[in-house]
Write a structure and sequence with these properties.
five-stranded antiparallel beta sheet; 705 residues; alpha+beta
Length: 705
C-alpha cells in the first residue's frame, strides 16, 4: 500500500485553470496542462492547497492516529529479517529503524549473521552522510566489482528519484575513495569491466538521451580519467525504447567473465552485444530474451518468444544455455540447450549461481518452486528440487557464486517471512531466521478461487478472509491486481494489512489477471496494446465473482493498485463506478493520450501502444481515465495520490485527474508526498504514514458508513 489524499464535495476553484502553459499546444482542449509543470510555483501551490484539505480530513479521523502508530511500530521493529547480500566474504545488509531514518549499510561475518543476534559493523551511515553534505540522500543500492569485491559504486538519489549519483566505496576500509570514480546525478547504468575500468551509460553531453529520458551511449571510463576522456564503446539511437542501453558484467564460479551491452529497442525487445578486446559484436538471439546469469561457462537466457535453430524450436517461457566461448567465436551460429521448459500453468522467475550449479525459482499455479540445475557432460542439465515449504512464495535473495550456499525467502499471506540457507552441494535447505507473527491469523484462511472473464478464460485469485466467513455481502474487502509488464503478484505477508485490516474483520483479495507473468509470457501478451481491455475485463470478473459468492458487495468492496496498477484502478473507476465503494489510485498513469510526453512514458509504448498509431490512439482514448470521466455519473469517492519526486511516471497524471474530478464536482481525496520517488515515501516513517492514510480511507469508505 501507499498513500496521499484530499477531500472535496464540490468543484474547487483551480489556480490558473484557464492559463495556457508551455506544452499546451500538444494537448488541445486540456485546461490542466499547466499541472504537468512538475515543480512550478503555480502547480506546487495547487498541490499544497489540496494536501491541506486532505490531511484536515484524514489525519483527524479517529482511525488515523492508531493506524499510524501501529504501522510505524511494525515498520521499525528490530525483529525484522535483515535481508543478506554476499560480498567480500561477509554478509551485507541495508537497514532502517527509528535510530537510522535514512538507513545504514552494515556487515556481519556469515557465522554471526546466522545467529539469533548478529554482530554488525557499519560501513555507511546514510543519516550522517546526508547531514554532513546537507543532502536528501535515499539509498538505491550498491554496484560492486565482481572479482575482488573490494570496491563498490554506491547509488544515492535525491529524495527517491530514479536519477542517481554514484560514488566509489572501499569495502576493506569502510570509506568512500577520495579520488575514486564519481558519476554525477542522472539516469545512468554502470558496470565494472575490471577493478580500474567502468562501462557507463549516461547523458555524456546535453541532450544525449532517448525520448524516454534514458541513455543510449556507453563509454569506457578508466581510473583517473575525467568523464570527457572516456572512450565511446557503443552507441544506440535516440529513438531507442525501454530504460536505456545498459552495460552488464557477469562472472561465474570459476572466474569466467561475460561483458555485455543490452540495447533495448522497445519496451520488451532488445539486442544483446558481447564486448571483447576486438570490439563489440551482436549475439544472434531473438529480440525478446533476457540474460539471467553466467553459470559453468554458460550464458543463461530466458525466452519470451519462440526461438528456432535449425530443426529445433525452443519454446517461449523456456530457460536455455549458450556456451560463452562458442558464442564469442561464432556469435551468428549459436547452439542453445534447454535447461527449463515450463508446463501450461508454470513460469520462470529467477536464476542465481553457486559453485554447484544454477538455482532456478519458478511458479506453478502461482506457488513457488526452487530447483538446482547442474550441467552434465553431454551438455544437458539435471534437475533437483529443493525441499522448501509448499503453498508459499519463494524468492532467491542472493547466492555465493564462489561457494556452496544461497539464501531463499519463504512467505505467504498468513505465513510470516522466513529466511532459508541453501547448501547447494548437499541439496539441503535450513531455516535460519523467521519474523514473529505480527497479527492474529488464527481465525483467518486463504483460498484460491477462480472467476470467468468476458472471453471464458478462468482467472485465478486469492482470498484471505475469516474462516467463518458470512456470505451475506457484508464483508469489507480490498481487491488488488497489477496486470502489466509480465509482473507476477504472489502471496506475501503484509504485517500492516494483517494488523490494521484483516485482524479487524476485513477481507483481502489478489487477482492474477492477464498482463502479469503468473503463467508465462503468453499470459502477459494477451493484454498488450489494443488487446488491453481483456485485462480490465479480468479484474471486473473477479470483482463480480466476489459479489456473486456473497463475500462482499459494491458498498463494501474497495480496490487498490499502483503505477500500471494505478491505471487499472482508474479504468475500473471510470468503466464500472457502480462496483466500488472505494478506489485507491496510487502513483498512477491516467492520461493515456499524454503518457508518452510525461517523464519515462515513451519507454512503455510496447505495453500500451502509441498515440502516433491511429488504431492504438483510438483504443487509448477509449480507456484513458482522464478522458473518460463524465459529469453526472455517481462515482465512489476515490483516493488519488503520487509524489513530487516521482521521475518515472510522474505526479502529473494524478494531479490532472484530481483537477478534472474537482471540475465535475465529484468528491475525492488527493495527496502528493514531496519525497519518495515512485513509491510511498523515502523512509520508514513516511511509508508508515502513507499506509495509515490509506487504511484510514478504506475504513471510512467501507466500514464506517
Amino acid at each position: 500500500m501507499k498513500a496521499t489524499w484530499l477531500l472535496v464535495s464540490a468543484a474547487l476553484p483551480l489556480l490558473a485553470a484557464a492559463t495556457a502553459m508551455p506544452g499546451a499546444e500538444n494537448a488541445p482542449g486540456d485546461p490542466y496542462i499547466w499541472l504537468e509543470q512538475q515543480d512550478s510555483a503555480e502547480a506546487m501551490q495547487w498541490v499544497h492547497a489540496e494536501n491541506d484539505k486532505t490531511l484536515a480530513v484524514l489525519e483527524k479521523d479517529p482511525h488515523f492516529e492508531v493506524f499510524d502508530r501501529a504501522a510505524l511500530a511494525i515498520a521499525e521493529a528490530n525483529d525484522r529479517i535483515p535481508m543478506p547480500l554476499y560480498l567480500h566474504q561477509q554478509i551485507f545488509n541495508f537497514w532502517q529503524d527509528a535510530g537510522h531514518v535514512r538507513g545504514i549499510w552494515r556487515y556481519s561475518d556469515p557465522a554471526s549473521y546466522a545467529s539469533s543476534a548478529p554482530h554488525w559493523s557499519t560501513a555507511i551511515d546514510l543519516d550522517a552522510l546526508a547531514t554532513d553534505e546537507n543532502a536528501n540522500w535515499v539509498w538505491q543500492g550498491a554496484n560492486c566489482e565482481p572479482i575482488a569485491e573490494r570496491r563498490c559504486l554506491i547509488d544515492l538519489s535525491d529524495g527517491g528519484e530514479d536519477a542517481i549519483t554514484e560514488r566509489e566505496f572501499d569495502v576493506d576500509k569502510d570509506h568512500f575513495v577520495a579520488d575514486g570514480f564519481r558519476l554525477p546525478h542522472g539516469k545512468q547504468h554502470a558496470a565494472w569491466q575490471d577493478q580500474d575500468t567502468l562501462l557507463v551509460a549516461r547523458e555524456w553531453n546535453p541532450g544525449e538521451l532517448t525520448s524516454s529520458g534514458y541513455p543510449y551511449i556507453v563509454k569506457r571510463l578508466r581510473r583517473g580519467q575525467n568523464p570527457d576522456q572516456a572512450q565511446e564503446v557503443f552507441r544506440g539511437r535516440a529513438d531507442d525504447g525501454g530504460y536505456g542501453v545498459s552495460p552488464e558484467v557477469l562472472v561465474d564460479a570459476e572466474g569466467r567473465r561475460a561483458v555485455l551491452i543490452v540495447r533495448p529497442l522497445s519496451t520488451f525487445e532488445s539486442e544483446i552485444y558481447l564486448v571483447a578486446a576486438s570490439g563489440v559484436t551482436r549475439l544472434a538471439v531473438p529480440k525478446k530474451v533476457e540474460i539471467q546469469a553466467l553459470a559453468q561457462g554458460q550464458l543463461i537466457i530466458s525466452l519470451d518468444e519462440d526461438w528456432t535453430r535449425g530443426a529445433a524450436t525452443f519454446r517461449q517461457g523456456s530457460l536455455v544455455a549458450l556456451d560463452l566461448a562458442a558464442a564469442s567465436r561464432h556469435p551468428d551460429e549459436l547452439q542453445p540447450t534447454t535447461i527449463y521448459l515450463p508446463g501450461p500453468r508454470e513460469t520462470f522467475l529467477q536464476a542465481a549461481v553457486t559453485r554447484d550449479g544454477l538455482l532456478v525459482s519458478t511458479l506453478e499455479n502461482v506457488r513457488g518452486r526452487v530447483c538446482l540445475y547442474r550441467r552434465k557432460s553431454n551438455a544437458s542439465w539435471s534437475r533437483q528440487p529443493l525441499d522448501l515449504p509448499d503453498n508459499s512464495t519463494l524468492a532467491i535473495v542472493d547466492s555465493d557464486r564462489r561457494g556452496h550456499s544461497a539464501f531463499v525467502s519463504v512467505t505467504g499471506f498468513l505465513q510470516p517471512p522466513s529466511l532459508w540457507r541453501v547448501n547447494t552441494g548437499a541439496i539441503q535447505a535450513t531455516r535460519i531466521k523467521e519474523l514473529p507473527p505480527k497479527f492474529d491469523a488464527s481465525n483467518l484462511a486463504v483460498q484460491q478461487l477462480q472467476a470467468t472473464s468476458s472471453d471464458g478464460t478462468r482467472i485465478p485469485y486469492f482470498l484471505v478472509a475469516p474462516k467463518l466467513l458470512k456470505t451475506d455481502g457484508g464483508n469489507p474487502t480490498i481487491l488488488t491486481a497489477y496486470g502489466g509488464f509480465q509482473i507476477s503478484l504472489t502471496p506475501r505477508y503484509s504485517a500492516i494489512t494483517g494488523k490494521l485490516w484483516l485482524e479487524q474483520g476485513g477481507a483481502f483479495a489478489v487477482a492474477n489477471i492477464r498482463g502479469g507473468g503468473e503463467f508465462g509470457p503468453a499470459w502477459h501478451e494477451a493484454g498488450l496494446t489494443t488487446r488491453r481491455q481483456i485485462i480490465y475485463d479480468d479484474f471486473t470478473a473477479v470483482a463480480r465473482d466476489l459479489i456473486a459468492r456473497g463475500i462482499t458487495s459494491p458498498r463494501r468492496l474497495g480496490i487498490e493498485g499502483g503505477s500500471n496498477g494505478g491505471l487499472l484502478m482508474g479504468v475500473e473507476f471510470t468503466q464500472h463506478p457502480e462496483l466500488w465503494g472505494a478506489v485507491d489510485i496510487q502513483v498512477p498513469l491516467l492520461d493515456m493520450l499524454r503518457f508518452e510526453s510525461i517523464d519515462a512514458g515513451a519507454s512503455w509504448v510496447g505495453e500500451y501502444g502509441s498515440v502516433s498509431n491511429p488504431d492504438q490512439r483510438a483504443f487509448l482514448a477509449s480507456i484513458s481515465p482522464y478522458a473518460n470521466l463524465r459529469r453526472g455519473v455517481q462515482y465512489p469517492r476515490a483516493l488519488v495520490w503520487s509524489t513530487t519526486k516521482d521521475d518515472r511516471v510522474g505526479p502529473q497524471h494524478a494531479r490532472k485527474f484530481a483537477a478534472r474530478l474537482s471540475e465535475f464536482g465529484i468528491p475525492y481525496f488527493f495527496y502528493e508526498e514531496t519525497e519518495g520517488g515512485h513509491s510511498a515515501g523515502a523512509n520508514l516513517e513516511e511509508k508508515a504514514r502513507t499506509n495509515a492514510l490509506e487504511l484510514t480511507y478504506f475504513a471510512r469508505q467501507l466500514r464506517d458508513q
